[in-house]
Design goal:
The structure is a homodimer.
Chain A: E1 12-16, H1 20-28, E2 35-40, E3 44-46, H2 51-55, E4 65-67, H3 68-71, E5 78-82, E6 85-89, E7 94-97, E8 102-104, E9 107-110, E10 114-116, H4 134-153, H5 157-163, E11 165-169, H6 173-189, E12 203-207, H7 219-231, E13 234-237, E14 242-245, E15 249-252, E16 255-258, E17 261-264, E18 268-270, H8 273-277, E19 287-288, E20 301-303, E21 308-309, H9 322-342, E22 356-361, E23 364-368, E24 373-375, H10 376-390, H11 394-410
Helix pairs in contact in A: 1-9, 4-5
Chain lengths: ~425, ~425
């Protein structure tokens, strides 16, 4: 205005990814002297811990997805951009979006998360989808419900059996939650809805390649989980690595399990942005970040959340958990705000373990804290309360509470929609 | 069991369509001596009157969709089949599904509804989608929200203007509701969410070819509707027929209106099943049914709801309304149950007009009853209560109430998801 030709002294911070990590970095910079641009492929922040409930027809997608713009609307210095990053030019300090737009930055924050990994068996993805996005969840929900429709239509007993067999690959928290939820869907919600099949006789198989379920939990909790899943009717197979997945079966432990739907919950790899930058990555594609989350070799690039491999105080890599991403985001937001305002360097990130919870089914969950280990109803209630509390926005908390309460009382699931339906036929084609 | 070779005396009733009409016929036969098969392409019954709220991000699809199986689970004599009817063989008394299955019937009930009609301009459909299904609503919601994203990205003022102009074609209740809801979305929900555009400056144009909005309502209510829409910022153009729709504009009344999203609410045609049967149909493809809903020339085929043209007591055709379909379904269910049990012929169907309601926006609606005409807050409250009451299932009532209450207090919409997102670019391509 005063004819100044000086460079604007406000720092431009670009954040890639609006997950737990990216959102927290943005919030931390919301009152700062920086001009912040937050870029995500979607227009919403997804509460991934409840995604399995969308896949099993208990919740609607919108219940766990909050518009990024709404979350950050109060911060006038933050611009939200819906777009896909296709190039990171670290030397030129800019990124490129799919439509060709160049976005320059002074500081770049990479928090683009992870996706499923099939460990070299990419052909399996078609038959055993993973669960990372709303689209994944809608797809799995439709396939799951359609399998019962098809089983009801066919008169071939072997086909009926195959259509009513569901295989979950991977015995971590996601696999346990999915297997439990599918078993409850079949045994309660759908129990009386068909005339030619008995949904309660559906088979749910949970395959774990390692020696036990929930390897991050204490052994007693893992044993409890196996017992509870078995009571729910889930067939748990440990030490059982998958050797093949086709349209008609999953092969594991030398045996072919005929199935119409397998779900992959066995592994993740980092988003490709680490490699795009050219930084050093581990074998899962995660950027090996310093303990202040900066990326070695780049003084103005940071990585955090599932895309980063960061060592804890004890030298071990931090696990790929929502709480790690969130804490890193809170740390980095504050650290960058301070660095921009005062030039003060940041102390390193310290992870505070808030404990681990995994839910199995009604009145059944495991919780592992430094101060206690819980199972059964107390763990289950705690899980529910913590997840309601962690949901972004009062509206989502209300809606999810109402639906959970309803489901608890009636055993009914609310969101049994088959989308983009095709004629279900009798199961000869996959959907 | 007793070595009987006699034909099973139970009548086989096949109902096509699980809309308001088909569901009621099934319920009416739920305690009868008939074996009933209800066939629908989807696995849910859709509450179409609130579909525009899904299209404008106020509700989730599952809030207005109830699984057909759950609705009818208590009736052991009803089988639900998810499938698409591809052939009706009236002479052989069977229908064919897309997968080749033959379904024989003793009595056939056709209630497969209506879809959009473009009056010979089928090319317009691509650029001006109609709103009849959940997929339509998801598609319109995504395009609507994506238009704002794109407008925020482009620096070209003309393109910005085009991306923020929405045209609704057709001034009946659907068009009025859509135009009002889009205006409220832009003026309230999205108002503060963007940095480079002002969503409150979005243009919503409502085009009506006839002399006035809401032609089925009294003139005073139509005038009130026009005034209220104008206050909401909607540009209402009457006597303004559309002559062309392309990717970039809608041409009406000799003028080109640049727009990125037009929505078609101007006309419907019957589902093709009437022609498939070979019955006499009117120019909209509706089966010209007798006043007892039987189809002339077929003693065991009935048609009702939007696929049927049925004359009222006064000789005028009944309108294509949910209440007509529902009352016809209730009538036919009872009539068929009686005919099957006792052979008694049915008296003709009599429509009882329950009145008409259309909503414009917050505190603004019109209601036309034989005993009163209401506008403003009373009509709006009545509209809300009636629609909550009419929703199938207590869970849906609860969820929709919670969301409406929330929206009323905060002006926030709950379901702002863009699905199958692509890079929004700057609006050069359509989504």
């Amino acid at each position: 205005m005063a004819g100044s030709t000086q460079h604007d002294p406000r720092k431009r911070v670009v954040i890639i990814g609006a997950g737990f990590a990216g959102i927290e970095v943005a919030r931390g910079l919301g009152q700062s002297q920086a001009d912040v641009t937050l870029i995500d492929r979607e227009n919403y922040h997804l509460f991934q811990p409840l995604l399995y409930q969308v896949a099993t027809a208990a919740l609607s997608p919108a219940d766990i997805a909050e518009p990024v713009r709404r979350m950050l609307r109060r911060y006038a210095n933050i611009t939200v951009v819906m777009g896909e990053v296709t190039k990171i030019s670290g030397a030129e300090n800019h990124i490129t979006l799919a439509d060709g737009t160049l976005v320059p930055y002074d500081i770049l924050v990479i928090a683009s998360g992870a996706t499923h990994a099939y460990f070299g068996h990419d052909a399996w993805e078609k038959f055993a989808p993973g669960l990372k996005t709303i689209d994944d969840a809608r797809d799995i929900r439709s396939r799951l419900l359609l399998s019962f429709e098809r089983a009801d239509r066919t008169s071939d007993p072997a086909k009926k059996k195959r259509l009513m067999t569901f295989v979950v690959v991977g015995g971590g928290p996601s696999g346990v939650e999915l297997a439990g939820a599918i078993a409850e869907l079949a045994r309660h919600t759908l129990a009386k809805d068909f005339r030619h099949i008995d949904p309660t006789s559906a088979t749910v198989v949970l395959l774990e390649a390692g020696p036990g379920l929930l390897s991050a939990f204490p052994k007693e909790l893992a044993r409890y989980t196996k017992r509870k899943l078995t009571q729910l009717g889930v067939t748990v197979r440990e030490n059982c690595a998958v050797s093949n997945i086709t349209e008609k079966f999953v092969e594991a432990g030398g045996e072919k399990i005929p199935t119409a739907l397998a779900i992959w919950a066995a592994g993740v790899k980092a988003s490709p942005l680490g490699k795009m930058l050219g930084a050093a990555t581990d074998k899962s594609g995660r950027i090996e970040a310093n303990r202040d989350l900066s990326v070695p070799g780049y003084e103005n690039v940071y990585a955090l959340g599932d895309i980063a491999q960061v060592k804890a105080q004890d030298g071990k890599p931090l696990p790929g958990l929502a709480q790690v991403a969130k804490q890193q985001g809170q740390y980095l937001g504050k650290a960058l705000a301070r660095r921009i305002a005062t030039g003060t360097p940041s102390p390193v990130f310290k992870f505070h373990d808030r404990g681990n919870v995994a839910v199995i089914g009604r009145h059944a969950a495991v919780a592992d804290f430094s101060w206690a280990r819980l199972t059964g109803t107390p763990a289950w209630l705690l899980w529910a309360l913590v997840h309601i509390y962690l949901l972004a926005g009062l509206q989502h908390r209300l809606l999810v509470s109402v639906q959970w309460l309803w489901r608890y009382i009636t055993y009914d699931s609310g969101a049994r929609l088959i989308v983009h339906p095709m004629d279900p036929g009798d199961g000869d084609e996959r959907c």
